[in-house]
Design brief:
Structural class: alpha/beta
Shape: globular
Oligomer: single chain
Distance between the termini: 49 Å
Strand content: 15-25%
Order of helices and strands: EEEHEEHEHHHEHEHEEHHEEH
Helix content: 25-40%
Number of strands: 12
Strand order of the largest sheet: 6-7-8-3-9-10
Length: 264
């Protein structure tokens, strides 16, 4: 059974079927998998995630979570099963880091219910997992971009979801924290789907990849099956050397600049 399944999804803004952004997109995330969605800018990566977390309603096709059509379930049901980390930082309204992370417990509480001892422990654990427990009482707005991204991941972890949906999760992070965040996600073993621009990170951390081009899935499979020099040329319009990482063995991509191409 898939944790997440998009089946032949079409989507367009303003319900305009003549201007489809997504065209017959099908993808699946199986329990415990880390699945990456890659493709050029404007290919439909973020739009596909927006359909996965009920932000965009497809014009055609279905989106299922835990074998349930997400549009046949109430919003709070979806929030208990899936957590989302987007590229944009939300308004913090003067909240502390801990208060932001505590928002992840909202789907598990009634309207006026306070924090239980279990809620407090879960939030503390999430803060510790992302390395922000020591900054829990600082205003969220004083954090760096990378720290804010980690705080939002902690908020997602506090939801205790069965599925993580991450839109460019490494965007605001330095090299060390990029690796730490993706290692953490892998270690957690939560079913995860993420859009990623860095193809070497996608190769290193993802179990499977889907490649989007102009709103369609044009390739899927393991990183070794997908990340070929031919695909990078056809889809991304770049020449690259693809070989095996000397230590880990996953594909390693070295871009060939125009000057290097001439020299060769």
């Amino acid at each position: 059974m898939s944790s997440l399944s998009l089946d032949r999804v079409d989507w367009a803004p303003h319900a305009a079927p003549t201007d489809l952004i997504l065209k017959q997109v099908s993808l699946a995330v199986h329990p415990g998998e880390f699945v990456g969605v890659i493709g050029p800018n404007g290919s439909g990566k973020t739009s596909s995630l927006c359909c996965a977390f009920r932000y965009h309603r497809p014009l055609a096709g279905t989106v299922s979570l835990a074998a349930q059509d997400i549009w046949q379930q109430p919003g709070h049901w979806h929030a208990r099963h899936a957590a989302v980390v987007l590229q944009e930082f939300p308004e913090d309204f003067g909240l502390s880091v801990r208060e932001v992370v505590d928002m992840g417990r909202t789907p598990h509480k009634s309207l006026f219910q306070g924090d239980s001892a279990e809620d407090i422990a879960i939030v503390s654990q999430a803060l510790e997992q992302v390395g922000l427990l020591s900054r829990q009482h600082h205003p969220f707005e004083t954090l760096s971009g990378g720290e804010k991204q980690r705080a939002l991941l902690a908020r997602a972890l506090a939801q205790q979801p069965s599925l993580l949906i991450l839109d460019e999760p490494t965007n605001h992070l330095d090299l060390r924290h990029q690796l730490e965040l993706l290692r953490l996600v892998r270690r957690l073993g939560i079913s995860t789907v993420a859009t990623l621009h860095d193809l070497n990170l996608a190769a290193a951390f993802c179990d499977r990849l889907y490649v989007l081009q102009r709103g369609r899935i044009v390739a899927d499979g393991s990183p070794a099956e997908v990340l070929t020099a031919d695909l990078l040329d056809r889809v991304f319009g770049v020449r690259a050397l693809v070989d095996a990482h000397p230590i880990a063995g996953h594909p390693r991509i070295t871009l060939i600049t125009q000057e290097q191409d001439h020299e060769a």
